[in-house]
Write a structure and sequence with these properties.
heterodimer, A: 10 helices, B: alpha/beta, Alpha-Beta Plaits, 6-stranded mixed β-sheet, 4-stranded antiparallel β-sheet, 11 helices
Chain lengths: 256, 337
């Protein structure tokens, strides 16, 4: 393992991210902020939603922002760099095993996802207050869930970014991300699906469920949520699965 | 450390379409009947031995297997069979060690569009573990050498094709590699830049570096390469110095003729002419009365008047001794086809 090269690859991504800071921020925060405003503020203050919905919503929005940021940060550059601009070739020729380039991308994407997730909490809290009741009872568990969710998003980004072509980006949104979001228990707790028992089982193949429920369980444990152990198992399984598939797809793309 | 390149029986079969980098010239003609469909043989047992410190050229038409060869030697293409070594390293088994000593200029621009020209060089140097002071000095030197200093702080997205190509070559030289691969380096360059590039390549070679370049430009192969391999359909057709290769064409001159009336008797009389070494009829399925005839001879223009006495000519094309003639002689096809 060649740390100098690894760090240089990381530094390159940092430079590019800094150059694209404003669009990246808008992309990360505009949608969750609008969502928080409409559902948490407009709907609650007009009486269509109960006031407690504010607290229920916040962890879900955090999970969504993290997943979106991580997937976007890893998948989008990969799709372009492999298929259109071939920019990645220079880094594939760097004196380091190709796998490390993929791992660097995943670490970088995870980092961005953590930052996005952590930034959503104060932003949403400011927008929603008063009435948000967060209780961070076990910070270590929260850190663990957050890191696993970040890794989930970046590994998912690796898998998607190395599996779909440029022309399928629209399809990725409508076929993969949109259903994931709506059936990801971000806007409602998993227990709310108890009237739809079959659906409630099916959505368990959606990794976002574990992200939303995990953050809900650690930030607003007063609401019903999946047991933390189940969350951890779910996240670890999906993290390993997506990382393995992602690396395999990356190798296929890197060498013809 | 001086490093040469060796390949032995190198084979590459693509299942599905080959990547863009490996040339767009693969046509249906590559599919032979005994292979399952969509299998494309890009390299069919290529063995090369390139000496350390040599400028070696791979010459061939599009789809001949040039880019695939470079792809395998630069770890980007997995060989289907055979061996490839650079210096003491097996390319596929010791990828990291190989990547450390090679520099690569791909056929298509693959610059990092999110970075400025100078950053591209600096980060490339960083990938190779160069310290920041050496990096900065070397980047400035290369920008100057390639006449890009005034564009150094600009993003490369707005660069012209020629500028991108120059920067790609500068980047490949940034970490001072022992072996430099140039895949069609002068494609799309104006004549002036091409000369600058040739000068830089010769200079780099003078410092003991091995250079492998692919081209379908005969002038370039002639001007730069100490030895040349002519390849077609993934196989070696000829290998020697440019001068010797040119001399290997019977007579050297090639006259491509068309007659309005054609007969076997005419062929015999052509062969009997003084200086004619070989006469070939092009089998391109046109009307029998109007066949193209290739005449290899040791003189050009002065033969035409004698030929015109034998039969009525409808078209004449004379080529001086060149690699193009060599290619035609071996394959019956033009390099430019």
């Amino acid at each position: 393992m060649n740390w100098k090269t690894f760090w240089a690859l990381f530094a390159r991504d940092m430079r590019v991210a800094r150059r694209n800071l404003v669009p990246t921020l808008l992309q990360t925060f505009l949608q969750p902020i609008m969502f928080v405003f409409i559902f948490g503020r407009v709907m609650v203050s007009s009486g269509f939603m109960a006031a407690s919905y504010k607290s229920l919503l916040l962890p879900g929005i955090m999970a969504l922002s993290m997943i979106f940021t991580g997937v976007w940060a890893v998948a989008m550059p990969l799709i372009g760099e492999f298929q259109f601009t071939h920019e990645i070739e220079d880094r594939l020729l760097a004196p380091i095993q190709n796998d490390w380039l993929a791992i660097e991308k995943v670490i970088f994407g995870s980092m961005q996802a953590v930052l996005a997730g952590l930034a959503v909490i104060p932003a949403a809290w400011l927008l929603l207050r008063p009435g948000v009741e967060l209780s961070l009872s076990s910070p270590l568990v929260f850190v663990g869930v957050t890191l696993l969710v970040a890794l989930l998003s970046a590994s998912g980004g690796l898998t998607l970014g190395c599996s779909i072509s440029q022309t399928q980006i629209g399809l990725m949104f409508s076929m993969v991300l949109t259903p994931m979001i709506f059936f990801g228990c971000a806007y409602y707790p998993w227990s709310a699906l108890s009237n739809f028992p079959i659906l409630q089982k099916i959505v368990l193949v959606n990794p976002l469920v574990y992200a939303s429920e995990g953050l809900r369980g650690t930030l607003v444990p007063q609401f019903p949520h999946l047991p933390i152990l189940v969350v951890f198992i779910g996240l670890v399984v999906f993290d390993s699965l997506l990382l393995t598939i992602g690396l395999r797809q990356f190798r296929r793309k890197a060498v013809s | 450390m001086l490093a040469g390149i060796r390949t032995k029986d190198l084979r590459k079969v693509y299942s599905g379409s080959p990547p863009l980098g490996a040339g767009g010239g693969f046509g249906p003609r590559r599919k032979s009947k005994d292979q399952p469909s969509r299998q494309i043989v890009a390299l069919d047992g290529l063995s090369l031995e390139i000496e350390p410190g040599e400028i070696f050229g791979l010459l061939g038409p599009n789809g001949a297997g040039k880019s695939t060869t470079v792809g395998i030697l630069t770890t980007r293409v997995r060989p289907t069979g055979g061996q490839a070594e650079i210096g003491d390293f097996d390319v596929w088994a010791q990828q990291v060690a190989v990547k450390r000593i090679i520099g690569v200029v791909a056929q298509r621009p693959n610059l990092d569009f999110s970075l400025t020209a100078r950053e591209i060089l600096l980060f490339h140097g960083a990938y190779f573990g160069m310290d920041s002071r050496t990096r900065a000095a070397r980047a400035s030197e290369l920008l100057e050498r390639f006449k890009l200093t005034d564009r150094g702080e600009q993003l490369v997205a707005g660069f012209s094709g020629g500028m991108m190509q120059r920067l790609s070559i500068a980047r490949a030289m940034m970490h001072d590699p022992q072996v430099l691969f140039l895949d069609e380096p002068s494609a799309g360059l104006d004549p002036q830049t091409r000369l600058l590039l040739w000068e830089i390549i010769r200079e780099y070679n003078a410092s003991g570096k091995t250079i492998l370049l692919t081209t379908h430009n005969m002038e370039e192969a002639d001007a730069l390469c100490q030895r040349l391999a002519i390849i077609d359909h993934g196989r070696m057709i000829a290998l020697d110095t440019p001068t010797k290769l040119k001399a290997s064409v019977p007579g050297g001159f090639l006259l491509r003729l068309r007659f309005s009336a054609y007969s076997d008797e005419l062929l015999g009389r052509l062969k009997a002419l003084n200086g004619v070494r070989e006469v070939r009829v092009q089998e391109d399925g046109e009307m029998k009365e109007e066949k193209a005839v290739d005449v290899y001879a040791d003189r050009g223009g002065s033969l035409v008047s004698e030929i015109a006495m034998l039969a009525e000519l409808s078209d004449v094309h004379i080529s001086e001794p060149s690699l193009e003639n060599l290619f035609l002689h071996h394959t019956g096809r033009s390099l430019r086809e």
